[in-house]
Amino acid sequence: MRKGGKRKSTSQKQETEVKASSSSQENQKENHKLASQAKRAKTSKPQPQLEYFEDKRNLEDLWKAAFPVGTEWDQLDSVYQFNWNFSNLEEAFEEGGRLYGKKVYLFGCTEPQLVPYKGENKVICIPVVVAVVSPFPPSDKIGINSVQREAEEIVPMKQMKMDWVPYIPLENRDSQVDRLQSQMFILSCTQRSSFCRVALKQMKIDRLKKYEYCLPYFYQPLKEDELEQSTEVQIIFPAAQKPVFCEFDWELDELDEFTDQLIEADELDKDKKDAFKEFVKERVREAKKANRQAREARKKALEEMSEETKAAFENMRFYKFYPIPTPDTPDVSNVKAPFINRYYGKAHEVL
Hints:
- This protein has 11 helices and 13 strands.
- By secondary structure, the protein is α+β, with helices and mostly antiparallel strands.
- The chain has 2 domains: about 60-220 and about 315-350, no CATH class; about 220-305, Ubiquitin-like (UB roll).
- Helix 9 packs across helix 10 (about 275-305).
- This is Protein HEAT INTOLERANT 4-like.
């Protein structure tokens, strides 16, 4: 009996030890599991918050792509200091819009105007986009003119590194450009991309100023140019003290009397009277010759023009787009004007 009791006692003891060992192993596993979870929780990186960006509109950069012809280079930064909204231009190309399905040529320009902004009036360089509806480019030339220049120049666009190039909407920019039949063309300037501060310093002043005096050129052969009928000439007479700036009308002004008035007003030295008169006569001869050549050129162009081309000129339309008001940009609603430039005249519609 004692032996049996002893074996039973020993067996119970072993069973107890096994249970204790098993329990200890389970505790270790649980502790290891908790430690692993704690370690993972400690070492796991925080998940980044998702950022949402508005989808870009298909023609959002169209106004920037159209080169702002005639803008002074040191003013370009000020043009882009605001996020101007030209959604009115973009909507014009949508179904039902004025430019939908039409062949359009666009160029940019700027108009410095005094407008209200943040409670005060400021002179702002306002970007404007002109859209020309035409089956062919309105011109391949650029006019260069200013009151400081003695004579107007009409030069090929390529001489000023400008040309009409296709505008590719954002949704098509992954496509091959040569396979696209674009209906939108912008006046582009390759010189623009190379204009850094260093390049500006190295460029000759006269060349630099030519860009600032550029105007998109347009010649309407079906309409007699007002300039051809003008009898006025711009006079810039060089003098030691200061140049003489004036306008002389060869039909309304008498040269001797006109010259004497300038002398009396201390605008012209008396000893320069004869030289000034000869200078004016030469400018008048040049202007009359230019008018005569222009009339002859128009007459010849009309004689050689096809009926299809005449119809294209008759149906050509100009649209002038200003940026629409937004909380972050100046309101330009009160300074909109139809006048484009001296070659294009007035727009058919201002938007």
